[in-house]
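Hi R.,

Here's the input for the flavin-adenine dinucleotide complex you asked about:
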Amino acid sequence: MRTDVVIVGAGAAGLLAAVAARRLGHQVLVIERGATLGGATSASDGHLWLPGNDLMGRNGIPSDTAEEALAYLDALARSDSAVMASRRAAFTRTAAVVARWLRTSKIGLEVVRSLPDCSPDVEGAKLQGRTLRTKPTAAKLDPEWAERLRAPAAAAPRSGLLATLRRPFRGGGELNSGGALVSELLRRALGSDVEIWLESPLTSLLLDGGAVRGVTVEREGAAVEVEAARGVLLACGGFETDQELRERYLPQPTSAAWTTGGGGEGAALRAGLQVEAAVAELDQAWWTPVMLADGVAHPLDVARVAPHGLIVDRAGDRYVNEAEPGGSAGRRMYEHNWGDRSVPSFLIVDNRHRKQYPLGPWAPGASPKAAIEAGDLFRAPTLDELAESLGVDRAGLLGSVVAFNQLAKRGKDTDFGRGESAWDRFFGDPLLRRNPCLGGVDRQPYWALRVYPGDAGTKGGLVIDQRSRVLRGDSTPVPGLWACGGSAASLFGDTEPGDGAALAAALVEAYRGVVDLSDQLERIDEALS
Ligand SMILES: Cc1cc2nc3c(=O)[nH]c(=O)nc-3n(C[C@H](O)[C@H](O)[C@H](O)COP(=O)(O)OP(=O)(O)OC[C@H]3O[C@@H](n4cnc5c(N)ncnc54)[C@H](O)[C@@H]3O)c2cc1C
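And here is the predicted structure with flavin-adenine dinucleotide in place:
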């Protein structure tokens, strides 16, 4: 079979690339491994960190420029490589274009109000406006395709405590955030005659010398060769679900059970091997502390930030600002893990926390018997007994709680600065004026669960340039091959600039890749400069 463009993976990045490639006049085939589409995007909050977007001005938020966003990314960056610097510049120039592309495609976006960048005190940071999300929408698809949307995970969203508490009451079969984005992109893809093959994994690249001329796909038990006249875009996520690759590349210990992702199984890395592509950032992930319930990972974005709880290691000591962004909190768990101290750690909360805030998959007030019996959740009348059942040092835990309660009384965490940054406060309880993230842990019974350094996907992958072309070790591009999102080495390295950066980078890279394989990128970049 022959087509112009083959896109591997039907998450948001693959679907956006497919629609964009059709609009540029190409025949497009999307191949998707799963029986459903949407990948990690469907499970996600669908937040998009798109600096310079024009919704800021429309919402009365002080405007933003690509230069300010670049200054921010440069200040955070730990890599001074020329390729990364030009990728950062390309991202900040193109982010607003992608926001406009989504809006002119009539995909409703809204600003996530009051959500600051992850490092609000760094030069070029903004206190709100850069993070957008897709407005809730009904799936306006034929039933046959509506059934093919991957169901969103039952994860607690990261959109502020009050929003979280309101979210379950939004009924009417509406799709939220990540699911809404996927459904809207899918509708446009189908409406513009993009061909989509489900249950059709990429098995290898078709090569002509060093160039990629198509793919081999497993389809209905047969190996099908598809030639792609213009090129192949890898949008098939990272390697978060592959235990062997995790053990080879990520810090230890690690487990595929700790990912909340589920899009990528390492297909891009394997394809890259065939063309001797360079790889980078393989030890990095979009870390986020998680808990396990019935073997399924759930983020703790709300529970660890809310007042009346603290995180301790096996010695019972506090070692982290519980409210800091998931990326740095997850990294801290590994840095602190000498002598197996902090993987897992323990979230200890009192009964006020349990009554008022969600805890992983459990609604406020729930005390799920099955989870207690299974050892996923612990409850005890005293901290002493709780420490014993967790295997945590008793004196350590009691000392930490006493010290924590004194800090809470003063409303100031002089040990770790919890609740000091605008980022922390966004996720705290706005009803607590002095410090929305701090409250004493002193009401019986006490509750606890194990905390693991989970992730929302891996960050390592194929090295790409600012055109999203896959590069070899000598920095020359592999003809015919582009990559984006989790398939590519993250342009943010081990940093996390804002909520929605992963998905935004995936969309921007997908967009630039498709424009480049259409020989239109110079024209667009000239218009932007
Ligand atoms: C709970 C959760 C919340 C998150 N929230 C956010 C957020 O708010 N903002 C943000 O920026 N990021 C968030 N993330 C991360 C974000 O979802 C991902 O970075 C993003 O979805 C990546 O999009 P993608 O299109 O590159 O990959 P995916 O959406 O994962 O799509 C990849 C697709 O490729 C398919 N595939 C894999 N292998 C093959 C193969 N061999 N052949 C064919 N197809 C294949 C997969 O089945 C999948 O459908 C979150 C993640 C999780 C899990």
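One thing worth noting: The radius of gyration is 23 Å.

Cheers,
M.
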